Amino acid sequence: MRIVIIGAGFAGMYAALSAARLRDIEGVSPAGLEIMLVAPEPTLVIRPRLYEQNPETLTAPLQDVLAAINVVYVQGRAEAIDPASHTVEVATTNGANKSLSYDRLVVASGSQLFRPNIPGLAEHAFSVDQLDDAIALDRHLKILAGRPASPARDTVVVVGAGFTGIEAATEIPARLHTIFGAKANPRVIIIDRNEAVVPDMGSGPRPIVEDALRKLGIETRLGAGVASLDTSGITLSSGEHIETATVIWAAGIRANPLTAQIPVERDNFGRLIVDRDLRVPGVADVFATGDAAKAACDDAGNFALMSCQHATRMGAFAGNNAAAELLGVPTRPYHQEAYVTCLDLGEAGALFTRGWDHKVEMVGDGAKKTKQEINTVWIYPPRAERAAALASANPERVTDL
After folding, report:
1. Taking 60 as the threshold, does the pLDDT of residue 80 lie above it?
2. Which DSSP category does 358 fall into?
3. I need a surface site. Which of 46, 213, 329, 375 has the fewest CB within 10 A?
4. Which element (helix H / strand E) includes 335?
């Protein structure tokens, strides 16, 4: 029997850990239930931190963890899924193709930034979406230090006033002071089509975010879209042109296109609609998790968000349930009633809320300390020690924060 897991992000990592945990509990050998994880690199990218400087340091190795729990790592990129034949086609790093058969498949292929067809966007915008994107932005900002001060050099435009856009924007002033010097006077502008920042967080926390933007001198252009980008800067739908050498696109994400190869219903984000066990209805033996899945968190109408907070717990349930079906033991319906946000606000501190109604619990330095603990401790992989690694993946105990 074999479980194939696509993706080494938070959901894929915890799916592998949880499947191996249940295999161990049931006393089944690795030969009796083979668990394979497919990914281009045996590395967890700490994606929630990619808005920070030096992003090349924001990864964690997985090879030793996977080896400790007897999960087979397959280096390559999953390019095709054939549910009818129960196979996944993998493009390996040496250019060859490999076909993997499965008894259960866990799609944990993650998400990617949505880039609409705006003139100049592909050529002139940066992002903090993937590791290579964040590294490219970091290098660009450091290269700017060699240019003379000018409105274009000293202006950074962030498109998107959601969670990622706010964290990227509020981090930029400190990053540019580090690069350009304390006397630099960077200008940061946030653009969003919505009439308010952090629209998904509601009106309760918004004044705190708005106050942080004012303290940091960050401007906003709300209710405005992007018409085009070129070498001179960015032009808004209002007709305003802003001179800038740096545009950071942070305006929404979509599920990895791999989900489109499974012929079932998907939502507007490209996520596979799953049942409470995270199975994909209508396709035999396929589970989906993390950013690849739209899953109900509770019975109150709340659905998992495309975030590492939900991906870790969803991954643990998906891996457990894929293994449970093969081992003939009961599955565990996914649930995640608790929901928190911890929004980094750069040198203005942070904001911590709890619940789907975003009740504010902490602001300023206290919230910042919590954010730093989340970013540097909680979201990293378990240590490469078998018992500890397996224990970390109990679906009912994977933290909701």
Report:
1. yes
2. T
3. 329
4. none
